Amino acid sequence: MINERNKESVEETRFNMSKTTTIQKLANALKEKKVDSQLISFLQKFNKLKNYFTSSSCAGRIILLGLDKEESKKPNLFVGKWHRKVKLQEITSLLEKDLCFDEIWFKQESFIFHFVCKNLHYATKLLKIKANFGIKRCGIFKIEDGRYIIELMSTSHISFPVKLGKEILIDKQNLEKIVKKAITKLEK
């Protein structure tokens, strides 16, 4: 039977190994410019904390998502994906192409973070802090020794179909208004 001291040691070892591996993956992603630029400073500071690290993050994005008749997720479903202000022309040029999807959806998705906490004490502490920032969606979604993973995300999003078959469902003038709104939500 494992006593409390041994359990803490196993928890500490697992956490530290996982943190080292994840921070190396982040370093590689930074070199390959695969990290949302507006998050880099925050991620570097957060990952210096002793009892926490981030396993994945996204500052938010605007996407055009292709779907088949079953609305299933398949490889290459992203028609367009931007983690920045997108230009209307970038979206319309993709919508005007003859693509192999039954439907194309416009989506603006909020930020999302996955924070790994060493134990339940630190996970609970982080959950309490999030309330100070007005964040509504947050919870622990994985619990194991040395890895309590919290998902934190905003509730701000937009999602609707913009093309069915070959028919574009929204005119450029209204699409421009929606793109502006999506950018405002993304920046917030």
How is this structure best summarized?
With 188 residues, the chain is α+β, with helices and mostly antiparallel strands. Helices cover 37% and strands 30% of the residues.
Structure overview:
With 188 residues, the protein is of the alpha+beta class. The radius of gyration is 20 Å and the shape is elongated. It has five helices and nine strands. The strands form two sheets. It has a five-stranded antiparallel sheet with strand order 3-2-4-8-9. It has a four-stranded antiparallel sheet with strand order 1-5-7-6. The model has no long low-confidence stretch (mean pLDDT 88).
Topology:
Elements: H1 4-31, H2 40-46, E1 52-58, E2 61-67, E3 78-82, H3 88-95, E4 103-109, E5 112-117, H4 120-130, E6 137-144, E7 147-153, E8 158-164, E9 167-168, H5 172-187
Antiparallel strand pairs: 1-5, 2-3, 2-4, 4-8, 5-7, 6-7, 8-9
Largest sheet: 5 strands, antiparallel
> Helicity, in percent?
25-40%
Net shape: elongated
What's the end-to-end separation, in Å?
50 Å
Query: What's the gyration radius in Å?
Result: 20 Å
Biggest sheet: strand arrangement: 3-2-4-8-9
Mean pLDDT: 88
Beta-strand portion reads 25-35%
Structural class of the helix and strand makeup? alpha+beta
Oligomeric form of this entry? single chain
Order of helices and strands: HHEEEHEEHEEEEH
Uncertain regions spanning at least 5 consecutive residues:
none
Number of beta strands: 9
How many alpha or pi helices? 5
Give descriptors for this structure.
single chain; 188 residues; five-stranded antiparallel sheet; four-stranded antiparallel sheet; 9 strands; 37% helix
